[in-house]
Each structure stands twice: as structure tokens, then as C-alpha cells.
Amino acid sequence: MTNEIDINLYISIAEALHYKWDPIGISDIPRSIGEYDSYVPELYELICQNADGEVIFDYLWEIEVKHMGCDGNRAATLAFVDYLKEITKV
User: Interior CA angle at 19 toward 88 and 5, to 5°?
Assistant: First the structure.
């Protein structure tokens, strides 16, 4: 087993967070690129471990509601998890 990072997968996750998840609505602000990058390593690990969608949802929901203080949108977050799983099939 290798510890090498799949850079394309990593970038796909980062872009998905910025352009699709975007719970604070900043994706149209050019200087906001990278706002969600601190969440990429954990999501990358979850995706590589083929984590269940519920586990990924719980991770994102905690960030969205507890850490960011957003009201949260369950349907949107669930849809994002489905999207993320689809674009990152490994």
C-alpha cells in the first residue's frame, strides 16, 4: 500500500467543496478560493476509505452547523455527498 496522494482526487474534492458545497455562499468571490481547503484532507481520507455517505454527511454537517454556525440545509448537504461520492469514485 502506498501513501502517495492522488492529486487529481484531492483537487476534485477541493473544487467540489468550493463550487458545490459552499455553505457560506462565497464561491463567486475570486479571493475566496481555498476557504474550505482545511476540510479536504479529512474528506480525502474518508473517500479513500470508501466511507459510507452517512459518515461523510456527518463530517460536513458538523462543520456546516457547529463550526460555521450556519442553519444547515440537510437536503443540499445530502445531495452534495451523493455528488462527491459520484465524482470521486476510486
Answer: 35
